[in-house]
Amino acid sequence: MRFSTKAIHVGQEPEATTGAVVVPIFQTSTYAQPDVGVHKGHEYSRTSNPTRDAYQACIAALENARHGYAFGSGMGAISTIMTLFKAGDHILSSDDVYGGTFRVFDKVFRNFGLDYSFADTSDLDALAAAIRPETRMVWIESPTNPMLKISDIAAIADLCHRKGLLLGVDNTFMSPYFQRPLELGADLVMHSSTKYLGGHSDVVGGVVCTNHDQVAERIKFSQNAMGAVMGPFDAWLTLRGLKTLALRMERHQKNALAVARFLEAHDDVREVIYPGLESHPGHALQARQAHGFGGMISLRLKGDLEAARRFCRSTKLFFLAESLGGVESLLEHPAIMTHASVPAETRAALGITDDFVRLSVGIEDENDLIEDLGQALAAMRHP
Ligand SMILES: *Cc1c(COP(=O)(O)O)cnc(C)c1O
Predict the structure, then answer these.
(1) What is the pLDDT of residue 339?
(2) Is the N or the C terminus of the chain less surrounded, counting Cβ atoms within 10 Å?
(3) pTM for the whole thing?
């Protein structure tokens, strides 16, 4: 079965009693057992739930994974992955990760004796040099957030496996439609399903997929033991989102390319960062390791913080909001919004400056989006 077919069929047989073609929402915490110690496959919904099972089967199939586990948020998924490790272990992470990922590493798991360091994983030599004897996992985002740097997933997987390390990839920005890290050798792939997988900005969730049976056993154990599970209604919404993932991603990408070209030619824009542009340093690598370039664009405006505020305030279709990956276009100012928890020096080193804005391009009509950005740039220029 190919991608779009899997999205609609895997885990989604018509329901046995009624023939309902849509997986029902099994909104139940527990399951009546026919006899003491005898059950019909489910005992308690933290451990398993039929709606969550259907979604887990589908997303695992889309990532070409044998195992998939759904969580109440992307951060719940990442936190559960951390239970693979013990005090003294070191995790080497991309330096330009989601702000919440940095925060949970730095402010939560360090307290339990896990150690973290951060490197530019788009530079293989820098990454190799940062590996320590205690390193157990390399954790990357590609593209990164918000600089959209591209890391060579297959080369990093090779390096990790030569050194006996796991490679985990946060694939949120790409979705499995555009990029499947497990096929490139990664051991774990994680998503904030809040973004493209759900796709409609109406549900928060996270997922972990793997082909590594021992890792899967541990994640499954911790999913139940720690309990950061996704509820049945959220699993149902996200499963519905998956059905249109292929269509949505194509449209996100088409619109993003049109918007990026418009911005690249605009006098009030200093720089446009979009992996789909030939000017992006990771363009060729992205074209080789992925099936597309996604819907996220970062840009630098010609102006100061006040100008950036005027721009962000002036769009009408692009809502000023954190998050990404929904059908509606969003924009945000990383230095003040999503990356506020990253220390100011680190932000400066990464290039998250006051004139820096991130766009999540939705699936509206591209001409309306371009007109909206055009009038916001004019408002920025002439207050
Ligand atoms: C949003 C996001 C997360 C965190 O996911 P939540 O669902 O918000 O908990 C992690 N990584 C990336 C790249 C994200 O965009």
Answers:
(1) 84
(2) C
(3) 0.97
- Give how far the C-alpha of residue 93 lies from the chain's centroid of Cα atoms, to the nearest Å: 15
Residue nearest to atom 9 of ligand 1 (CA): 74
Residue 73 Cβ contacting ligand 1 at under 6 Å: yes
Residue 181, amino acid: P
Query: Residue 365 pLDDT more than 80?
Result: yes
Ligand 1 nearest atom to the CA of residue 172, by list position? 13
The alpha helices in the chain, defined as continuous H runs, are: 3-9, 50-62, 74-81, 99-103, 124-130, 153-162, 175-178, 213-226, 232-243, 245-264, 283-289, 305-314, 344-350, 366-381
Is residue 332 located within the same domain as residue 207?
no
Verify cis geometry, omega within 30 degrees of 0, for the bond prior to 14: no
Ligand 1 probe mutation, 190, 195, 204, 230, most atoms within 8 A of CB? 195
CB of 195 closer than 6 angstroms to any ligand 1 atom? yes
Catalytic residues: 46, 98, 170, 195
Distance spanning both ends of the chain, measured CA to CA: 54
pLDDT, average across residues 367-375:
98
Q: In this structure, what CATH number is given to the domain that contains residue 67?
A: 3.40.640.10
Q: Which amino acid is at 285?
A: L
Of the candidates 221, 242, 263, which is a domain's last residue?
242
What one-character-per-residue DSSP string does 197-215 give?
A: TT-SSS---EEEEES-HHH
d(C-alpha 278, C-alpha 148), whole Å: 14
Distance CA 132, CA 91 (A): 9
The mean per-residue pLDDT over the stretch 134-141 comes to 98
Burial 318-350 (b: 16+ CB within 10 A, else e): bbeeeebbbbebbbbbbbeebbeebeeeebeeb
194: domain range?
3-242
Which pLDDT belongs to residue 308?
95
The best mutation among 194, 332, 337, 358 to test binding of ligand 1, ranked by most ligand atoms within 8 Å of the C-beta, falls on 194
- Mapped onto helix, strand or coil, the DSSP state of residue 227 is coil
Helix (H, G, I), strand (E, B) or coil at 296: strand
For the ranges 112-116, 165-169, 203-207, 303-307, the lowest mean pLDDT is seen at 303-307
Residue 254 and residue 218 share a domain: no
